Amino acid sequence: MDTLVGPGSVLHRDIVNCRACPRLVEWRERVAVEKRASYRDEDYWGRPITGFGDPDARVVVLGLAPAAHGANRTGRMFTGDRSGDWLFRAMNRAGLATQAASVHADDGLELHDAWVTSAVKCAPPDNKPAPVERDACSPFLQRELAGLPNAQAIVCLGTFGFDAALRHFGVRPKPKFGHGVEVELDLDVKSQDTGTHAGAGPTLLGCYHVSQQNTFTGRLTEEMLDSVFARAIELANVR
Length: 239
Fold this sequence. Notes:
Low-confidence stretches: 189-198
Strand content: 15-25%
Mean pLDDT: 93
Number of strands: 6
CATH architecture: 3-Layer(aba) Sandwich
Helix content: 25-40%
Largest sheet: 6 strands, mixed
């Protein structure tokens, strides 16, 4: 059966071809032309970014949006920037990633039992999507999570990722974000035999974002990040 997510899927095509938000389209494409001086000889991706990893993943990492000179340049989430350096070192230590560095989309990195994505698929100015842009991307996230039926733990990076997950699953009242906060979900499960009933859904795990604002200041340490992934692996029963 064809996968619902990843390269070759209809979802991948729809995301990459999206031009729904004029401000984001203008920004991502302008950045790809003007470039950062240190990357002036590189070809930027300059389009929306899809999630990547193992379609059978039990652990999902949900970030905010692509970085202007990271994923918007390389074409893969958290690839080619210092946030990704932190993330994939931790995932490598946890056994979820085959290597500790992610430099470009063809560097050989593979994820095992893990999927990495973002709530907004285009790089936003100042890393701040507008609410209307967030909402325009919401159907993509809905389809993506629906295509990851084995997900048992969703590591939400930062308040934005945490709130996006809460909206997706319709959690009310909304819990307050915090590093290490856990939200257990009960979902409506439909069965031909038993009808609709409550079933255990994935657990949301709050984690400070791996941005330099947090990692340079010590607000997020490698030990703190390792602890979150250890808990995610425990919840998802990943061996």
